[in-house]
Amino acid sequence: MKNVVGHRLPDGWEVKKISDVFTVERGGSPRPIKKYLTDSADGLNWIKIGDASASNKYIYETKEKIIVEGLKKTRFVKEGDFLLSNSMSFGRPYIMKTTGCIHDGWLVLRDKKKYEIDQNFLYYILCSPIIFFQFDLLAAGSTVRNLNIALVSSVEIPIPPIAEQKRIVAILDEAFAFIDKAKENAEKNLANAKELFESHLNGIFANPGEDWDEKTIQKITLKVGSGATPLGGQKAYKDSGISLIRSLNIHDDEFKYENLAFINESQAEKLSNVIIKSRDVLLNITGASIARCNIVPDNVLPARVNQHVSIIRLKPDMVMPEFLHFMLISKSHKERLLLSGDKNGATRQALTKALINNYQISYPNLETQEQIIKKTQTIKLGSLHLKEIYQQKIAALEELKKSILKKAFEGEL
Questions:
Q1: What's the pTM?
Q2: Would strands 106-111 and 82-85 be described as parallel, antiparallel, or unpaired?
Q3: Inter-helix orientation angle 366-408/129-139, to 10°
């Protein structure tokens, strides 16, 4: 017998549609949801995508509950039911280890008990590339890649005899335990690689040398200032022209080019007071990305900034841009900058020009600055190399899982 991808299956295996094995139903969302949320112990679990861990097959608990009245507008699920995400984490299955209500971002699959099927076997097969391939194929071409009841119901799954199911599950359990441990170690090493650079920065800038000078930013700069959004907002942006740098372009130690906006010369002329020059330090001063910082890359010049980004232009005989940039992305300075001037210890929502000008920093002579920059750049490159290695290892382990699952459900394990 052949499965959906044309592979010959062993004798005794059957191919069934999901609708033959499961009842497929969609969740529902009582609206407005805030009206139905409750802290009462008598509330019903409200199961959200965020309650499901990408590395865990079970949902044990939820962060929120809804009142019993909300049950009329949603769907109740029981322990042992399968949930299938139908939007964000497209096609990801979970097994319920509690009860609760699901919103319309979930499908529930209830075993009809018509066939002798091991629950863990069902979980593994729903995770397999064979099933995702069908989901992907059926959802192709739609503007929003959602799974619906009809689509999921039509997907085919191979079902071997129960003894073979249990044999496959035992092999997969053992193999995946080994892979998950290797992945856990790689993720720890990835975190350590990231920490290496951050720890180095903090070690330098949280403990300045006794011979370092101490001055406000105003005393070491030629300019501190932010720009504005052209009249018409985003409608005024062009496909090419003079770069308009926004806060979403500025990330710590990284410039994001994909969202770079452009304005024409007439619009740029109105922002002539914020012309960016080579080696200017750029600092986000409002919003969720507040205090992110990097040095402007020369390949975006000529450029201007909007009102959410500040230019910090340094006096060349006092502080090097790379030195200030590394300082401002260090944990100790970022925290101090955000809390600066707030006696209540609350994180600031905006960094004003006055606050930046009055922010005090310590710095050594230019020769020492250059030595610190070179050492920091070397450690940064080493950290990035390690991150790349561990990211590749994690990706390879995920591919290994997919390969093993594919073999398992093509009868080749």
A1: 0.69
A2: antiparallel
A3: 100
